[in-house]
Amino acid sequence: MRIIVDEKKCTGCGICKEECPKGAKIWDVNKKAMATNLRYCHLCTFCASKCPEEAILIVRDAEDETKKQDTEEDI
Asked: Which CATH fold topology does 2-74 show?
């Protein structure tokens, strides 16, 4: 999993950090936002959905998607 911040769109407003349940553990906002320590990320996508500039993209690895599909098929 990766969180990509488009530096051209990001204004450094900090909403991503405010909206994230693990905000201070994941987000560093100093002029531009940067996601660090992704082991704390729950993939809730609050950061991306609340970003007023649409500067955040969450990329899930194919392996994670395969596990999710397998679990859904078992239900």
From this structure: Alpha-Beta Plaits (3.30.70)
